[in-house]
Amino acid sequence: MSMKAEEYQERRLDVAGWPVNLASYRLGAEWHCKADNVSPGAGLCRTAGATRQEAEEKAIHRAEELLSRTKRHAV
Amino acid sequence: MSAYAHPETLVSTDWVANHANDPKVRVVEVDVDTKAYDEGHVPGAIAWAWNTQLCDTVRRDILSKAQFEELMSASGVTPDTTLVIYGDNNNWFAAWALWQAKIYGHGDVRLMNGGRKKWLSEGREFSTQAPNITRAQYRAKDPDHSLRAFLHEVQEASARRLAALVDVRSPQEFTGEILAPPGLPETCQRGGHIPGARSIPWGKACNDDGTFKTADELLALYGGEGIDGSRPVIAYCRIGERSSHTWFVLKYLLGLDNITNYDGSWTEWGNLVGANVEKGATASAARG
Fold first, then answer.
1. Which end of chain A has fewer beta carbons closer than 10 Å to its terminal beta carbon, N or C?
2. Is the confidence metric ipTM above 0.95 for this complex?
């Protein structure tokens, strides 16, 4: 099956005290979202949903689970 | 305005769109998230999984020559094939794959500038079908170890300041505040950086759309940190993929001759017994 990504959009927000970049777009009837941690830009999760909002909410939830485990060490 | 030293190692998304079905070209997607390909990919592209197909899963090592030959053969790649690699995270693991292809002497291997992100954001065609591949017979060259830094070389370079060590991780990883990128598992015992290293995060080489900055911008960025080709350079990160990206920039976009990728990176150094580390920011890290 062939399709095009439509309505590609990125936005930044704070999740569990860390900056997160959400990239979301529609492929066919399904919305997709990828979350990364901005610095260094590592991917955190990839989600899908029936709407952009649903895909983003799933990504934020998963990102929060992962980021809340990150420890800051004194230097 | 300066030009890239080796512009033939970089292709645009337009070029890929026009050559994806060229029988002399094999397009390969290499992602951090190995599920991304199944969501949709450049039509005609195949996928390599970095964690199973681009490393020796028993030894902690890159592919052996025989493993590389098998991957290329199974991918329908011959030594004459133009290999075009792209992926997510601005081509982190695409650069890792390119680095190994160069180690084994593949003649024509290129990155798609901007990677998967640019292809997506431009609304280009995606396919969910994997192409049918006819197996080829591939014979690799002996590994070119001049592209790779091993632990003993890094130890000597650090102790005697023989090379410029470039830490391409985030400033917080460099200082030791965090032991891994936020949200990822910690894979080392200690934070900090290799003594003498400079912090030049990989992402400084990229524009917001994922493409590489211009040659002039890259010259200013790295030259401003003393990375100008006057001495050997060793790039490292956590496991060697981000530093492959910087290695590509320095070797092929800026044309530095003596640049190696230390793929042992912080996962090796940060777990070594009896090895010094430095913590905290330096002047260069503070600007990151």
1. N
2. no
